[in-house]
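Cytochrome c oxidase subunit 1, pasting as requested.
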Amino acid sequence: MSAVPHGLEHGHDHHHPSGLMRWIQTTNHKDIGTMYLIFSFIMFLSGGVMALTIRAELFQPGLQVVQPEFFNQLTTMHGLVMVFGAIMPAFVGFANWQIPLMIGASDMAFARMNNWSFWLLPPAAILLVGSFFVPGGASAAGWTLYAPLSIQMGMGMDMAIFAVHIMGISSIMGAINIVVTVLNMRAPGMTLMKMPLFCWTWLITAYLLIAVMPVLAGAVTMILTDRHFGTSFFNAAGGGDPVLYQHVFWFFGHPEVYIMILPAFGIVSQVIPTFARKPLFGYASMVYATASIAILSFMVWAHHMFTTGMPATGQLFFMYATMLIAVPTGVKVFNWVATMWRGSMTFEAPMLFSVGFLFVFTMGGFTGLICAIAPIDIQIQDTYYVVAHFHYVLVAGSLFALFSGAYYWLPKWTGHMYDERLGKLHFWCSIIFFNITFFPMHFLGLAGMPRRIPDYNPMFADFNAIATIGAFGFGLSQLIFLFTVIKCVRGGEKAAAKPWDGAEGLEWTVPSPAPYHTFEEPPQVK
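Structure tokens follow.
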């Protein structure tokens, strides 16, 4: 895809406010993208501190560090902070930065709404983290907020419900903005089937967000009315059904899993062709596979509920539907491997994280298939096997792809090349410590260790000690990333407009760093 940029004028930088107001009032997609990325990294560190507290408690049997009630608050808040505060806003930050650059648009479609959808997040984060400090503490019902536990909690639960609502509004506005931008603001000549795959995965993700965030809002609103207004949606004493909550929650929750992984697929689909120096293998099949995953994700929600006394027919349906969703995912993995096949590959930090993603995410996919088989799932339900599975998918999936994308586009964002040795050190520390942390959890789960428990049978002690050491190593490894980014922002080798020789796409036709106003006139795509 070659492009002829028209009139890239950079004389317009004096229009926008400076200092603090530049960030508060900004409607520029790059500034807003940067704020999303900074916010998500702060939340990532705070969720990480919670995780390390959990692991410190589990280093040995017995109660060492925290009380059981606080332990349950930590597991709940770690999940909520990481999902709604770290992973999702980080991908929205990438979307804000990259989509206008990739499709040749001047900005996002609704620039003021874009600003608002970001500034809803900090108050929601304050509500969420602040719930630790109210009487009764934070919610301790697990990140899924299952009734009837969530109906019995203190004020911290109401704060969590409010925070989830605000973050949901932010997500819906961001998603509408992405859909309108991608459908209406592409440069002349850029048809949908010429779009970079990152734009495709985000377009499909945005539709998922618009479809399922209101479902979550409905679920937590029903909890709220059960708690304060005498309704009995989930209260069995009043004729309600706690299992109904699980159905409503997972109808949101399973598409949500794909909301957190599809943009990661998009990033990896940009990075691998660049460093293999070959076009992406099977572009059209990648687009169709992404769409199939999105559609199928609405049909598999009850595979989280095999132990709720579902009829055998229901178990069979959800089991087979879940196995089916592995097919389009397998298509993607095959296409990435085929892209690398006989390419002239080099392994800079973005490629290392993408290849690491491929290995470890595929492993998480296999353990997911094992969890999908109802009779096996009944054995490993709520054990550490499930914890291992979803961390392999979420940490090695979403997070590694985010790191890959960050290293890939940092030169375009900052105008400087990052320190390659530090990037590689970050990758090797991350992947080694990640596996030391989460691989033993498969064995713990198979041996029957339940999750969300602060104390455990001494026979699980060795694997827990290994996992805790790995977790602290993994947590400290992320400080390398922070240092690398700060060092890159402050200076270093100047980045060319196209720092990677295999890179394709409109974002590499503009100078690095990308100017405040990118495309004064839309580029022509040939």
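Note for the archive: Confidence is low (pLDDT under 50) at residues 4-13.
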